[in-house]
């Protein structure tokens, strides 16, 4: 079971359909919507400002989500957050993909359906327009998201929802098997 802690008596609110990896950690003022998956060794700390995660999102292995005072972290529906991403007090709009190893800083906003390439740094306050591909350190818009990119982004969301449902069922089966011993 994931490590879920209150912070100053505020407990995370996690929809019952979510998959939470056993070694994920979630604390404080965090809300996670339906069919979202939080993967192995991810840490989501809601001990400075709120974190809101929509439905059908996947927050992949080794991610770190946190905030600065007065600056919430908002992740809208159907967002993919790749392995080892750091999100800090930013806004990720619906259907966006944040590539592996990227860092999105305070006040940055990733537009709806935007694609941030692996290893990118989106500096504080930077706005990435909807439907664009951006990458680099600092991230720069390269081109519009192509149809093949959009299809791959949709495939990833669907695949992680299916994997999350599988692992959630497996967790339940293993718990009931352990209880019988």
From TrEMBL:
Gene3D superfamilies for the chain: Hexapeptide repeat proteins
Record-linked InterPro entries: Hexapep, LbH_gamma_CA-like, Transf_Hexapept/Carb_Anhydrase, Trimer_LpxA-like_sf
Record's keyword annotation contains Transferase: yes
Molecular functions (GO terms): transferase activity
Keywords per UniProt: Transferase
One protein family per Pfam: Hexapep
Tree of life domain: Bacteria
Keyword Transferase part of the UniProt annotation: yes
Record protein name field: Carbonic anhydrase/acetyltransferase, isoleucine patch superfamily
Originating species: Caldibacillus debilis GB1
């Amino acid at each position: 079971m994931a490590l879920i802690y209150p912070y100053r008596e505020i407990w995370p609110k996690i929809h019952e359909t979510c998959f939470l990896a056993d070694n994920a950690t979630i604390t404080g003022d965090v809300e996670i919507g339906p069919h979202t998956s939080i993967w192995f060794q991810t840490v989501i700390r809601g001990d400075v400002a709120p974190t809101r995660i929509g439905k059908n999102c996947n927050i992949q292995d080794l991610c770190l989500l946190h905030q600065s005072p007065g600056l919430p972290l908002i992740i809208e529906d159907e967002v993919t957050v790749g392995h080892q991403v750091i999100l800090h007090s930013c806004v990720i709009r619906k259907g966006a993909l944040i590539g592996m190893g990227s860092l999105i800083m305070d006040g940055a906003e990733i537009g709806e359906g935007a694609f941030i390439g692996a290893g990118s740094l989106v500096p504080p306050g930077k706005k990435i327009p909807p439907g664009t591909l951006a990458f680099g350190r600092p991230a720069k818009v390269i081109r519009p998201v192509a149809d093949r990119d959009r299809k791959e982004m949709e495939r990833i969301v669907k695949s992680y929802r299916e994997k999350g449902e599988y692992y959630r069922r497996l967790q339940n089966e293993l718990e009931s098997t352990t209880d019988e011993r």
